[in-house]
């Protein structure tokens, strides 16, 4: 099962790009997505589809990466669908709610934006080793060390946060299957019974997360991890393919800018 934050081994052009280029591209795409118009979001979506094709990420893998955030996407859709005023399409009486034409379009657009953000982050983590991700973040933040920003510590914390997402999701699936094998049913019974079953699962997941954090701390201490300047085994170097990727991204940004002017 492919989960959000998991690295997929490969030898594609995207896998071989410098992590700084990929991180910078995700940041630029995020800005474009947040400020996107309907035409611009279509352009960004086509660009992400082309990037996923280059990285040999199938539609099934992309959908699997979106599965963990499906609930949040549904909530975002419902919030805009029921909270946007406009021309009524369906009245939900006796509730003081109505589905409007503007709410439907706004809900679809915002959900599309959120999906594009998640897919961009998923492509980054699927095609970049965690160690390369740490190196890329650290190198991008290195100029800030002159003003006292601990770039290496921030990079390590961000990398650990990225890494814990798939670990926790994997642990959740393992605990859920284990409880189902012991007779737990997450769909039967009343609401109170379901909450009790989910609460027991949440407590087990929380305890497992604390245990993994303790194991991580002991592993880092055993390997002599200390704060302070460190060197890297593999130094990052920009190549011609990185320059070509930056040129493609710049062309996409200029196209987006042109669409905004036309609109």
Descriptive report:
The protein has about 260 residues and is mostly helical. The protein contains 10 helices and 2 strands; from the N terminus they run αααααββααααα. It has a two-stranded antiparallel sheet. α2 (about 20-35) packs parallel to α10, α3 (about 40-55) runs antiparallel to α10 and α7 (about 130-140) packs antiparallel against α8. The model has no long low-confidence stretch (mean pLDDT about 80).
Give the N-to-C terminal Cα separation: 42 Å
| Spatial strand sequence of the major β-sheet | 1-2
Largest sheet: 2 strands, antiparallel
* C-alpha Rg (nearest Å): 22 Å
Percent of residues in beta strands? under 5%
Helix coverage percent: 55-70%
Principal-axes geometry comes out as flat
What is the residue-mean pLDDT, rounded to a whole number? Answer: 82
Structural class: mainly alpha
- Number of helical runs? 10
In N-to-C order, the SSE pattern is HHHHHEEHHHHH
SS elements, strand count: 2
* Poorly predicted ranges: none
In short:
The protein has 263 residues and is mainly alpha-helical. It contains ten helices and two strands, in the order H-H-H-H-H-E-E-H-H-H-H-H.
Write the layout of secondary structure elements.
Blueprint: H1 13-16, H2 19-34, H3 38-54, H4 59-66, H5 70-83, E1 88-91, E2 98-100, H6 101-126, H7 130-141, H8 151-181, H9 191-222, H10 240-262
Antiparallel strand pairs: 1-2
């Amino acid at each position: 099962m492919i989960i959000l934050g998991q690295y997929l081994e490969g030898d594609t052009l995207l896998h071989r790009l410098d992590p700084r280029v990929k991180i910078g591209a995700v940041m630029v795409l995020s800005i474009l997505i947040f400020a996107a118009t309907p035409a611009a979001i279509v352009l960004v979506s086509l660009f992400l589809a082309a990037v996923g094709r280059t990285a040999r990420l199938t539609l099934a893998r992309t959908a699997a990466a979106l599965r963990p955030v499906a609930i949040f996407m549904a909530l975002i859709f419902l919030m805009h669908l029921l909270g946007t005023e406009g021309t009524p399409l369906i009245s939900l009486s006796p509730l003081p709610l109505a589905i409007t034409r503007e709410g439907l379009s706004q809900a679809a657009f915002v959900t599309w934006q959120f999906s594009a953000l998640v897919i961009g982050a998923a492509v980054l983590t699927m095609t970049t080793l965690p160690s390369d991700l740490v190196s890329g973040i650290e190198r991008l933040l290195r100029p800030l060390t002159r003003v006292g920003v601990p770039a290496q510590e921030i990079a390590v914390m961000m990398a650990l946060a990225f890494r814990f997402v798939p670990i926790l999701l994997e642990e959740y699936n393992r605990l859920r299957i284990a409880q189902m094998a012991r007779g737990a049913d997450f769909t039967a019974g009343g609401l109170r019974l379901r909450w009790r079953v989910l609460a027991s699962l949440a407590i087990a997941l929380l305890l497992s997360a604390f245990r993994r954090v303790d194991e991580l701390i002991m592993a880092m201490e055993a390997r002599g991890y200390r704060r302070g300047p460190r060197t890297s085994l593999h130094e990052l170097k920009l190549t011609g393919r990185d320059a070509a990727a930056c040129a493609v991204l710049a062309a996409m940004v200029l196209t987006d800018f042109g669409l905004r002017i036309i609109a």
